[in-house]
Design a protein that fits this description.
Layout lengths: L1 H29 L6 H6 L2 H11 L19 H12 L1 H33 L5 H7 L3 H5 L2 H17 L4 H6 L5 H8 L5 H11 L3 H16 L13 H7 L1 H11 L3 H18 L2 H40 L12 H11 L18 H20 L9 H4 L17 H37 L11 H7 L10 H17 L4 H64 L36 H8 L19 H5 L12 H11 L11 H11 L11 H10 L53 E2 L21 H6 L5 H9 L5 H4 L1 H7 L24 H10 L8 H7 L7 H31 L9 E2 L4 H10 L9 H19 L8 H10 L12 H6 L2
Antiparallel strand pairs: 1-2
The structure holds a DNA duplex.
Main location: nucleus
Keywords: DNA-binding, Homeobox, Nucleus, Transcription, Transcription regulation
Protein name: Prospero domain-containing protein
Amino acid sequence: MMSSEEEADSAPYSDKLLKKQKRARQRVDAGEPRNSYSTLATNGLAPARAAHMSGGLYGAIFEGRQHFGIFRPGYAPADMLNELLGRAPADASDEPSGGDIAHRVLRDILQNRNKEFLRLSPDNNNVLANNNNDEPKEKRSPERPVSRESRPDLDDALLGLDSAGDSRTSPPPAQSAAEPLLAPKSEPEDRDSDAQRSSPRPLDVKRARVENIVSTMRASPAPQQPQVNGCKKRKLYHPQQHDGAAERYGTSHGSSAQTVSDDSEDDNERQPPIQQKLVEKNALKSQLRTMQEQLAEMQEKYMQLCNRMGQESETIENDGASSDVEQNDETVPKSEPASPAKEVPPPIPSSAPPNMLSQVMSKMMSAKMHAHAAAHPHLPPGFNGTLPMLPHLPPTDHIHPPHPHQHLNNAAAMYLNVSQKLFLEQEARMKEAVEQHQQQNNQQQRPQSNQHSPQQRQMGPTPKPPMSSELAERLDALRSNSGSVGPVTGADLEGLAEVLKSEITASLATLIDSIVTRFVHQRRIIGKQSEAAAAAAEQLNKDLMRATRMLERKSPTPKMPERPSGQMSGNNPVHHPGAPNGVPFITHNPMLMSQMNGPRAPGGAAFPLHAEAGGPGHGAQVRPPTGMFQTPPKTLGSLYSAMNGHFERENPEQNEALSLVVTPKKKRHKVTDTRITPRTVSRILGEGVGTPETKFPESPSPRPYPGGMALPTSVAIPNPSLHESQVFSPYSPFFGAGGGLARSPPAPERDSPPLPHAPVLLHPALMAAAHHASPDYMRHHHAHAPLHAAQHHPQHMDVQDPHSDCNSTDLPYDGVQPTSSTLTPMHLRKAKLMFFWVRYPSSAVLKMYFPDIKFNKNNTAQLVKWFSNFREFYYIQMEKYARQAISEGLKTAEDLHVAGDSELYRVLNLHYNRNNHIEVPPNFRYVVEQTLREFFRAIQGGKDAEQSWKKSIYKVISRLDDPVPEYFKSPNFLEQLE
DNA sequence: TTTGATCCTG
DNA sequence: CAGGATCAAA
C-alpha cells in the first residue's frame, strides 16, 4: 500500500511545483500582497460584535448540546459492519460457526425440498465430476465442499478482501473443484488449434468444431476462484480454456482475485441488497437456462456419437467413469492418444437443429425410459421425475449401460426437471433471503460470497450465469466426457444435476451464512452495547440527579431560541429513549446539562464560570477544577439507538470527516488512502447528532449570578470564516451564553499553569461503555465524581497508572497494531480532543497516539494538517475574542479570563469536543486564557500591524503543550468516540 | 534545496 | 477540512 501511495505522490508533487511556480510568478506580477493579517482585525469585527451585543445574549449556561436523545441511527449496523470488517481475526473465527449454522439450516431446507429431486438421481453423480477433479472425494458431498469453498469468499468479502491473496495462496480443499472454472469454456480458437495439433484426426476436428459451438452456447462459467494452484494441471487439461481465462480475466489468478475482491467490496458498499439478490437471481436463472441449453446440446452430440459409434462399432472405453481426475488424463490418452480428451469437444451434428433433436430425444427418452426403467439398476420404477438421487453413489456407472441413450435421455430429462425445480426453489429462496436480509440490516454489505459476482463480471462474450467451481467443473467434465470419451452417461447428467443442485445450495448457503453471521454479530454487538448503555445510563442518571438538584439553585440561562435538537428535529423519529434501565433521560434540557458540569462546588459557585460575575469572586480564583462542560454522553444516545434498533439516519451534525470520506473517492492521486471503509461510512452516517443542543423550550430568566453578570461579554462577531457560524447566530443557544470572555476585575492570579497532566476524564458514560479500559482507570473514574475525578489524581492516568501507563509504548493497551492507513472521522475526533492538550504535536507524538494507524507520508501529513487546521481555528477565535475584549475597553490582559461557560470556551468546545466526549482539561482553559492575553497584548500594543505578529504568540503557545493522556492511545478510546 | 508552518481559498 | 501557495528555517 505504502509503496503505491508513495508513488502516487510523486506525480502530484511535480504538478504542485509547477503550479506553485506559476502562481508565484503571477503574484509577483500582480504585485499581490502576500498576507493581509490586519484584515480580520480591522474589518468587521467591531460591527458584528456590536450587533451581537445589542442582541443581548445572555449567558445561557452551557447548554448541553445534546447528547441526550441523540440517536444515531445506523449506529448498530455500523458497528456490526465494523465488527465484520474491522476485526478480521474475530470474523474469521466467528464466521465458521455462523456459517455452519446457516449452512445446516439451508441444507436441511434444501434437502427436504430436494428430496423429490434426489429421488430421481440414478446413482452416479460422480462420474462426471470425477473427470476433472483432482480430488474427487471432496465432491462426494457437494454441499460440504461447496460451503467450504464459499466461505473463503465470504470472508474475503467481509474482510475487505485483503485476505483474498491468502486464500489463494492456500487453496481450500475444494479448490480443485474451482479449477475448471478458471477456464472459460469459450476459447474456440485455442481449443481447436490444440485439438488439431494434438489430434489431427477428422473426428477430433469435428469434435473441436462441435465444442466450439457448444462452448459458445454455454456461458462459460466464470472462473471462480482463481485460487487454483493447479494451473498447470488445468492447463494440461484445458489449455484453451485456460488461455482464454487468462486473457479475459487477467493472467494471474492473483490479479483476478484481486479484482474480484475489490469489486465485491465496492458492490457491498453501493449495491443495495435487493439489487444484488436480483442480480444473482437473474444470474442463476440464466445459468439454469444455459445449462438446459447445454444439456440439449449435449444430448444432440450424444446422439450423434452414439449413432456414429454404433456404426463404427466403436467401443467406448472410458466414459469418464474413472473417478479420478488424474485418471482422466490417463484415460483420455487411451481413447484419444493424440489429444487431450477433455478439451476435445464432443462432435456435434451440425446439421441437426438442436430443437428438433431435443424434441426427438424427448420422445425417445420418454418412450425408452419406461422400457428400461426396470432394467436399469439405478432407475427405480417411478423414474420419470421421481427417482431418488443418490448423491454419493459410487461411480459405478462406468459400466456402460446397455442403453446409453436411454440412460442419457433419462438423465437429461431428469436434469431438466431438476433444474427447473431447483430454479424455482432457488428463486423462492432468494426472495426469502432478500427479505430476510433487508430486515436484518440495512447494511449494504454483500452477504454472499463473491463467488457469483466475480464470475459475472468476468463473463466472457456470452453472458454467463455465475457458476460455482464445482458446477463448472462438472460441466466441464461432462463436456469432456461426451467429447473425448464419447457417450455421456446418464450418470454424468445426473452428476451435472447434482452439481447444479449443490451449487445452488452452496450459494444459498453462503447467502444464508452471511446473513446469519451478520445477525449474530449484530446480536452480539447490541448486547454489548446494552451493557455499556446500562452502565452509562446509571452513571448518567446520577449525574442528572445531581444536576437537577443544583439546577434548583441556579437560574436558567437566558433564552435561546429553540434549537432543534438533533433528535428533536423532525428527522429523528427516534423514540425518546427512556433509559433502558428505566432511567429516564432527563435531558434535553440544556440547563440541566450545564448544571452537570460543576456539580462539585458547593455554592453553585463551584464554577467560576463567570469570573467576572463577581459573585463570589473567589470562585473565579480557583480554577475550575473540572472541565468546562459537562459531558453529556452522546454515546448514550447512540447506545440507546442501537439498543432500540433505531437505525434511522439522523441529521448529520457535522461533517467533520465527511470531507475526508468524500475526498477519497474523488481523489485523483491516492491522497492519503482515502478509501472509505464501511466502518467509516457507517460512522459518518450515524455520527451526526444534529446539533446536539437539546432544545431549549423556554428562555430562562437571566442568570441569577450575584454579580449581575449576564455580561454580554460574548459579543463575538459572527465570523464568516467560522465553520460553525451557527455558534454565533443570535438564535443559537451557544451564542450569548452567559458570557464569552469572562473578565473578572479582581482576577486573582490564576495564571500559573495548571498541573502538568491535566486530568481529563472521559465522560462516565463513556467510561462505562469502555469495558476494556484499564481497570485502574475505570476505578478512578468511578470512585470520583465522574467529572472531576481526575483532578485529584492528575498523574494516575498518564504516569502512574500501572495498567494504562505505557508511556512511550505504541501499543499500550491491547497491543494495538496498525491496521489501516486510513484516518477516519473517528480519528479526526480523537485528534480534536487531543488538541486540548497539544497544539503543536510532533508527528512522532501523533503517531504514538494513533497506534492503529499505519502511518505513511500521506496520512501523516494529513494528521499534521488537521492540527494545523485546528490551530488555525483556534487562533482565529483567539484573535477575535481578544479584539473584542479590547473593543470593550478592557485595559489589561490580566483582566481577561476565560470562564468555563464563556462563549469562547463554548465555541472551542463545540469545535473540538462537539459531542463532549471528554471533559475539557483545565489546562486547556488556561492555555486559552494565555493565548487570549497574548493576543490582547499584541493587539493592544499595535503589534498586529506587523507582518508576522502572530508568530511570537504561536511560539509562546507552543510551549504550553501538555502531555496527552495515555488513554488516548487505547483502542477503546477511539471506539468510544462513536 | 528541502521541509515545515502558515495563509488563503473552496 | 483539504489543497495550494508562500515564506522561512534548516
